[in-house]
Amino acid sequence: MSASADLLKELRIDRNRAPEPSGRRRLLVIGLALLFLVPLIVMGWMLFGRNAGAKVQTATVTAIGGGGGAGASVLDATGYVVARRMATVSAKITGKVREVMIEEGQRVEEGQVMATLDPIDANAQRELTAAQLGAAQSDTQRVQAQLKEAEVNATRLSSLVKQQLVSKSQYDQAVASRDSLRAQLLTAQRNVKVAQDSLRISDLGVDNTIVRAPFSGVVTAKAAQPGEIVSPLSAGGGFTRTGIGTIVDMDSLEIEVDVGESFIGRVQPKMPVEAVLNAYPDWKIPAEVIAIIPTADRGKATVKVRIAIKTRDARIVPDMGVRVSFLEAAKPDQPRQTKPSAMIPANALAQRDGKDVAFVVNDDKVAQTQVSLGRKLGEDREVTAGLSGGETVVLDPPDSLKDGSRVRVETGDADSSK
């Protein structure tokens, strides 16, 4: 700063001093200009020159496990454990809960009583129909006795009319009375049948006050308490329960995942799968693709895939988060390779001197890396050597791109790590 001050003093005009030669003044002006311009040039280079380079798009290399052999992962996805057989058990009638005999986590068998409702109304109805049945049976016995007497009377008068001891009209009257009683007996017998059917219906009404498990499973929710009103239909007021509890058949558990439309071509039925629960990240569960649901979600652009769990374990419960890896089917004629491989977009590959290479981005420069290629995985390629996963590579590398070239990464880069 002292040198700058001295130079500035030199520029002061001393009117009492004789004028100096113009050449010396020109040198002073040039020196001052250089003193201020050099820092500006250096700063401009740091801001703009160091970012100079070709604009490129990038993608992330995905590690896919064992390469070049059986059991390699071709796609990863996330989903949830779901139960194919699950029911919220309710009573068939509306009534007040008298007793609840289940708790969360309890194992129930098919037909086991879960709860009972107050049976007062059902019992009263059954007693009424039982009394009606008894009355119908008594009426039948009365008509049968009358019919027996009428038949005997008609038989006696038939022999007397042949002997002309009674008139023909008396005989006809006895026959009519007999036939009438026969019709009354048929009606009474039908009334007995109706009363018996009504009694069976009343028995069903009493049985409907007992709530039983429709299948064997585990209780996951207890929804009612003694004294509450339950109904198979919601009353709309929010005070009526619609269920006693929820049971789940743990043998029906499976996995459902959503796979992006762009990758669904890699999934096939019966394809082996390796599942890892979020709760137990070190536990690898063998599984298998059941089916690909033949419909897509328009909003998420995904297709649902059902996966069967081959291992039954009490630690697997519904609605657990799970990560799955779809594996290539093992080939018996090829040894299994444990060396990890990676997956890279096909448009990230280039040819340099007859060799397959990829350009890995490190800060603002690229490193040319020779790679060995394996299978075609849709629009991607398997890399068996050269990349291990996690690297950032250039997409569509131009012919001018060389090892050590500077690049500028554009925003909105593609990503193959789905």
Automatic annotation (TrEMBL):
<dbReference type="InterPro" id="IPR006143">
    <property type="entry name" value="RND_pump_MFP"/>
</dbReference>
<feature type="domain" description="Multidrug resistance protein MdtA-like barrel-sandwich hybrid">
    <location>
        <begin position="85"/>
        <end position="231"/>
    </location>
</feature>
<dbReference type="InterPro" id="IPR058637">
    <property type="entry name" value="YknX-like_C"/>
</dbReference>
<dbReference type="Pfam" id="PF25917">
    <property type="entry name" value="BSH_RND"/>
</dbReference>
<keyword id="KW-0812">Transmembrane</keyword>
<dbReference type="InterPro" id="IPR058625">
    <property type="entry name" value="MdtA-like_BSH"/>
</dbReference>
<protein>
    <submittedName>
        <fullName>Acriflavin resistance protein</fullName>
    </submittedName>
</protein>
<dbReference type="GO" id="GO:0015562">
    <property type="term" value="F:efflux transmembrane transporter activity"/>
</dbReference>
<dbReference type="GO" id="GO:1990281">
    <property type="term" value="C:efflux pump complex"/>
</dbReference>
<feature type="compositionally biased region" description="Basic and acidic residues">
    <location>
        <begin position="399"/>
        <end position="418"/>
    </location>
</feature>
<dbReference type="Pfam" id="PF25989">
    <property type="entry name" value="YknX_C"/>
</dbReference>
<feature type="region of interest" description="Disordered">
    <location>
        <begin position="382"/>
        <end position="418"/>
    </location>
</feature>
<comment type="similarity">
    <text>Belongs to the membrane fusion protein (MFP) (TC 8.A.1) family.</text>
</comment>
<feature type="transmembrane region" description="Helical">
    <location>
        <begin position="27"/>
        <end position="48"/>
    </location>
</feature>
<keyword id="KW-0472">Membrane</keyword>
<feature type="domain" description="YknX-like C-terminal permuted SH3-like">
    <location>
        <begin position="343"/>
        <end position="409"/>
    </location>
</feature>
<feature type="domain" description="CusB-like beta-barrel">
    <location>
        <begin position="255"/>
        <end position="327"/>
    </location>
</feature>
<dbReference type="InterPro" id="IPR058792">
    <property type="entry name" value="Beta-barrel_RND_2"/>
</dbReference>
<dbReference type="Pfam" id="PF25954">
    <property type="entry name" value="Beta-barrel_RND_2"/>
</dbReference>
<keyword id="KW-1133">Transmembrane helix</keyword>
